[in-house]
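Box S1 | Example of a co-folding query
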Amino acid sequence: MPLTDRDLSTILDDCAREARKEIGKGHVADYIPALARINPDQFGMAVCGVDGREWVVGDSDSSFSIQSISKVFTLALALQSPGASGVWDRVGREPSGNAFNSLVQLESEQGLPRNPFINAGAIVITDVITTHFVSPVLQILGLVRRYADCEDIYIDEEVARSEEESGHRNAAIAHLLKSQGNLVADVDDVLAAYYRQCSIAMTCRDVARAFLPLAAGGRHPLTGETLMPALRAKRINSLLLTCGLYDGVGNFAFRVGIPAKSGVGGGIAAVIPGHFAICVWSPELDELGNSLAGTRALEIFAQETNLSVF
Ligand code: GLN
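Box S1 (continued) | Returned holo structure for glutamine
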C-alpha cells in the first residue's frame, strides 16, 4: 500500500516528537564561533518523494551550515568534470573507521584517502574541481542551486572565514596530500574552495530537494532534468551507505538502514532509492559528529514507513 499524505504527516510528527527527546544529550559543534552559538533547541525535517510530493515538520525552512553534506555535491561535480576519469585513482571507496579529520591513515596509506567523504578525500575531490574549473566555488554553488532548484542558496562568508582561521587540521591534511603527490592545485586555493563548500547555508527543504536526483536514478523529479546517469546515482548512494557517517556508519546502517550523509552543522541528508530524499537537522551532535536527534528521526522514519535498503 503506498503511503498517503496523511500517513506521511503522521509519521513526520512522530519523528519530530521522538527526535526532540534527544535534544540536551549532545553538544553543538564548537570549533568555530558561528556554529558554537547556535540555539541547540531546533529540529527540522523535510521529505521529498520521487513523485514530487513534499512533507515538512519543525524548523524545516531555517538555514543551517551544510558542512560535510557538501562533499556529496562536490563528488557529483568532480565526476562530471573533465577530471572525472582520474578520481578513483586518487580516492578510495572504503570506510575509514577513523574520525573524519584524522591524519593517521593518510600517512600510513601513502596519501590515498579511504573515501571522498572524509576530509582528506573531500579535499582531493575539491582539488579535482579547482584544477578543472576557472571558478571552482561558483561551479559548486551552481550545482547545488541546480540540484535544489533554488537560486537563493548562498555561502555564509562568516562561517567560511572562521573555517579558514581555525582550519589547521585541514591545512595539515592538504599539505600532507601535497607532499604525497595527491594534490595538484595550490594548497591555499583548494582549502579556500573547501571552506566555502562547507559554509553553504541551506534549509532542510533545500537539501532534501537537492538529494532527489539520487533517489530518482539521476533525474530530477521537480525539474525533469537528468543530472547524472542512473549508474552514477547508484554508486554515490553506495558510498553514502558505506562512508556517509564516518566511523558511525556501521551503527547508522544497523539502526536506520538508509544511505545518508551527515555534517557537523547537524544536518543529515538521506536517500531511499525509488522513494524519498530526506533531510533532518538538529544541531546537537554525538561524539562522532553526527546529529543525535537527526539520527533518531531517521530511525523512526525507517521503522514507521518500513522502508530501508535492506
Ligand atoms: N568544516 C568541517 C571540517 O572540515 C566539516 C566536517 C564535517 O562536517 N564533518 O572539519
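The first strand starts at residue 44 and ends at 49. The first helix runs from residue 5 to 20.
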